[in-house]
Amino acid sequence: MKNYTSTMLLHFLVLAASIFQAKSYFSEEKYPEESKMQPPTVVIAIIARNAAHSLPYYLGALERLNYPKGRISVWAATDHNSDNTTAILKEWLTVMQKFYHYVEWRPMDQPTSYAGELGPKHWPNSRYEYVMKLKQAALNFARKLCSLFAANKSVIAPMLDSQGAYSNYWCGITPQGYYRRTAEYFPTRHRHRVGCFPVPMVHSTMLLDLRKEGMKKLAFYPPHEDYSWPYDDIIVFAFSCRAAEIQMYLCNKERYGYLNVPAKPHHSLEDDRLNFVHVHLESMIDGPPMYPSRFVHMFPKQRDLMGFDEIYLINLRRRPDRRDRMLFSLNELEIDVKVVDAVDGNALNSSDIKFLGVDLLPGYYDPFSGRTLTKGEVGCFLSHFYIWKEMVDMQMDKALIFEDDVRFQSNFKRRVLRLMEEVEQVELDWDIIYLGRKQVNPGKEEPVENVRNLVMADYSYWTLSYAISQQGAQKLLNAEPLSKMLPVDEFLPIMYDKHPNEDYKSHFPNRNLQAFSTRPLLVQPCHYAGDPQWVSDTETSTLWDDDSVRTDWRGSHKTLKGSPPPEMLSAAYRDEL
């Protein structure tokens, strides 16, 4: 026993010596750091129905998502389609499945409609139930894969921009589960307050952190046993969160993306497509822009002239960004256009101006700043003037003119087509119809009988867009305006005898232009004076006869954003056109 103990002690001392030696040996070595954790595995659930018009852009955004595709699983389902949605999703998944961690595909080709459905945009209870079941299946799929999220909120949604005031959240909900207006909604929607805020409802796009213990109680389907609110998938889930004591959050720190306004039950797929086109056009102004997937075939747009002999886009060559955006927008609207290189007033010298026969209207001063004409305004006037001249020379019956800084209102093309059809039906004697301007006296503008949403134009600023007849172009040319020039948006009201300055009008005796305007207006400026992205080549210039005097917008109220009358009209009235 004694020998055994001695032997064990010897072994211990040798081992101890070895350990101390090892510690001494490795103390000068650098220990390798632990490798970084991979990003969390994320499940993206796609549920699409009759979305062929918008799906390529959604998938394109998904492709460009700044997240490793190998850490993303895609769960995609589609059903009850009467368009090409199934084929588009299948085409995309076939190409992209090799890049993603896992793809699950759940198509249902038949039937193409739900029982009791009035149309493809109607939501009977059977549709709500099926969508809730799909969301629950996606949730179960995500739980099975044990998805991890870096965010520390159980349910959080990025605020999505859309038409008007619509978005993917509510700031208030009634005890019966209906939407409730709150003072917080619009400051949040317009990003007057920025951050991540608790809200009673988020929908359409959200992140669920399934690591949280309380998330086990969440369900899209079946509804909670105490549920008595309206049968609607987003309200069912909001109730589920409330019952599980899980707070929903909304984050609006960035512009994350876009959301189409839900179509009404009586709307068609074409109505839904046009709504998406409007959201798409808005994205080109405010960003981020939407681009379609590279792996989905899209049919080319079928552009036309909407019944006009020509449609003109006035653009300065040194503003290619504006040209590109307008050409893209008009292509999406399926409107054909002829680009006219604007006369760059800032490139004109005194010899050029004299050669062109340009002279200032005696006594003209800007009504706000007191300055005279700028070279930018000279270039703008000449750009419009040459179009009027081309119209007369080419014997065009009517044309449509756009400047390159316009924001299109929803259903623009459909509204223009209907307007011109009604104008023709009543045989209206017209010379010019404003589609975009800044109204000064909207209360004085009388509606035109038997033509919806058309008024007799009063004094206004801007020439954003207008239709003009050959007769109207000839009247403007006959006035010989180059030798008594003032800004083109001041000249037009003189010619239809609505300008408040009698001295200016006295230089143009034949003031018989028949001028009208849409109400509400169909285009607005992209930006206003003082906005970060606002640029004016007419206000920010030099005086027409003195390059040493610089001008800017600060002395003029023309370019400031006022309270445009369309925003004061009721929603129902705005939607009529």
UniProtKB/TrEMBL annotation:
Name the family.
Answer: Belongs to the glycosyltransferase 25 family.
Record flagged with keyword Cell cycle: no
Keywords assigned by UniProt, alphabetized: Signal
Protein name from the UniProt record: Cerebral endothelial cell adhesion molecule
- Which residues belong to the signal peptide in this entry? 1-24
Output the superkingdom of the source species: Eukaryota
Residue stretches making up the Glycosyl transferase family domain = 309-491
Which one Pfam family would you cite for this protein?
Glyco_transf_25
Which InterPro entries does this one have?
A: Collagen_mod_GT25, Glyco_trans_25, Nucleotide-diphossugar_trans
Asked if the record carries the keyword Ligase, the reply is: no
